[in-house]
Amino acid sequence: MNVLIDNLSLYAEGLLGTVELTVYSSLLALALGFVMASFRVAPVASLRAFGTAWVTVLRNTPLTLLFFAVLLGLPRFGIVLPFQLFAVLALGCYTSAFICEALRAGINTVPTGQGEAARSLGMTFRQTLGLVVLPQAFRSVIPPIGSTLIALAKNSAIAGSFSVTELLGTYKTLNELGYNIVWTFVWIAVGYLIVTLSISAIFNVLEKRWGVAR
Amino acid sequence: MTAGTALYDIPGPLARRRHRLYGIIATAVILVILAGVVYLLFDTHQFTAAKWTPFEYKGIQEMLLRGLGNTLKAFVFAAVFSLVLGGILACGRLSAHRPVRWAATLVVEFFRAMPVLVMIFFVFVALKVQPLPALVTGLTLYNGSVLAEVFRSGVNSVERGQREAALALGMIKTQVMTYVLVPQAVRAMMPTIISQLVVALKDTSLGFLITYEEFLHAGKLIASNLDYDLPFIPVVMIISPIYIGMCMLLSWFATWMAKRQRRSPKTEAVEVAAAEPGTLMPGAGPHP
């Protein structure tokens, strides 16, 4: 208990770092994932190929390798940004591949008849998409997106080893200060549980509110 | 062409012409971006001979191969142990005794909710273990818990009649499990298990962070060599295709197996959901 009380600000800072990383990378991942998903269902072959390549490559890349390449590689091209931004970039791009697949699967669950019915009512492409297809797809993608974002929060731990302030990284300071290492880790674990369980709770609410009525 | 999407009809001649135009524009943009990247690579002198010569040396090649070997070693250990642990935990979760079931559930849920890296660091720093065992332990705890969930859902998704028929024939619970449910479930679960092994293979690279001498570590050593003009980008260009290739091969194997299975009568009685793990959410999607 002492470990937590003595170092409350350090833990709070770490937790805040993890939350920030998670939120920013989630936003990037959702935006990129949406773009890639629209590429993957587009009627234009080259966009589809690009989307497929993006997803296949990123899904099979170890995240550590991506961090390694982005955080230590991009500066070689003269791109100098704060490490936190690099971490967001790596995490966001990596997760976007999974978001893209979730969204695409969601769009594919909408029966063809829905689109056909919408078009036969004279709806334009924009209307079909915005009023018929996406609302239905949205309902079925809530749970997979939730689990992807939980995984993102857990993956953000890697950033700590690349000198970004986040929860797991606090162990180094505490270890040097000579605190009990087991308790240090217990509180780190609690911190991660708080983050993952909150995301889970948010998505459970979303699912209850908008999920597929089963 | 994605036949049967709700988004648009099969395009007519006009739409096809328009799509062709979009296609040309999109291709041009993508090519420009790629060309920009290649130009950037040349512009920052990444293809100079000095940066690529190290890869001709025997010592460096051997170092890379040793790293790759260590990565594969960690993967094999982690895969075998997590399959075993997954089996044990799944038995626990399917047990008829409530305390056992609760204990197994607690373990599985806890380790699924924790980042793997926290476990690896805990074993490495707090228990002061060598890097390889620490890495393998962390990966085993996490992937074992995830696999336990996969096994459980697999066994539960075998058609109810199979179990009832076996019980009606007078088999005891263990016999029902080992002769009837598990063989059918394992066949159906194979693709899911393999995709989880891909996650394990990817996560072996976390060993880099605890100074385990794996593939990425070897790359880092070469990259930080001043004699060769810090060949960081060349190292990345050599390492990533190998890593990504290995994972892709394994993923393709999983997809191939899933495809083959859809036609196999042996797995007819099982309907395994794309039960991908690593989450606290019901009905999860693939886990990164």
From TrEMBL, chain A:
Q: Does the keyword Transmembrane helix apply?
A: yes
Which SUPFAM superfamilies did the record assign? Answer: MetI-like (SSF161098)
Q: Which residues form the ABC transmembrane type-1 domain?
A: 15-203
Could you give a GO molecular-function term held by this entry?
transmembrane transporter activity
Q: Cross-referenced Pfam families, in alphabetical order?
A: BPD_transp_1
Question: What are its GO cellular component terms?
Answer: ATP-binding cassette (ABC) transporter complex
Name the major location.
membrane
Q: Which UniProt keywords apply?
A: Amino-acid transport, Cell membrane, Membrane, Transmembrane, Transmembrane helix, Transport
Per its UniProt entry, which superkingdom is the organism in? Answer: Bacteria
Report the locations given in the UniProt record. Cell membrane
Which stretches are transmembrane?
A: 23-42, 181-206
Which GO terms of type biological process are on file? amino acid transport
Instruction: Please give, as recorded in its UniProt entry, the membrane topology of this protein.
Output: Multi-pass membrane protein
Write down the InterPro entries for this protein, in alphabetical order: AA_ABC_transptr_permease_3TM, ArtM/GltK/GlnP/TcyL/YhdX-like, MetI-like, MetI-like_sf
Q: Which Gene3D superfamilies match?
A: MetI-like
NCBIfam families xrefs: HEQRo_perm_3TM
Q: Which family does it belong to?
A: Belongs to the binding-protein-dependent transport system permease family. HisMQ subfamily.
Could you tell me what this protein is called? Glutamate transport system permease protein
From TrEMBL, chain B:
Subcellular compartments: Cell membrane
A GO molecular-function annotation: transmembrane transporter activity
This protein is called what?
Answer: Glutamate transport system permease protein
| Similarity-based family | Belongs to the binding-protein-dependent transport system permease family.
Q: Name one GO biological process term.
A: amino acid transport
Sorted keywords for this record are: Cell membrane, Membrane, Transmembrane, Transmembrane helix, Transport
SUPFAM superfamilies attached to this UniProt entry: MetI-like (SSF161098)
Per its UniProt record, what Gene3D superfamilies does this chain match?
MetI-like
Q: Name one GO cellular component term.
A: ATP-binding cassette (ABC) transporter complex
The membrane topology of this protein is: Multi-pass membrane protein
**Residue ranges of the TM segments:** 21-42, 74-94, 106-127, 232-254
Please give the superkingdom of this protein's source.
Bacteria
Q: Which NCBIfam families match?
A: HEQRo_perm_3TM
Q: Which residues form the ABC transmembrane type-1 domain?
A: 68-254
InterPro entries in the record: AA_ABC_transptr_permease_3TM, ArtM/GltK/GlnP/TcyL/YhdX-like, MetI-like, MetI-like_sf
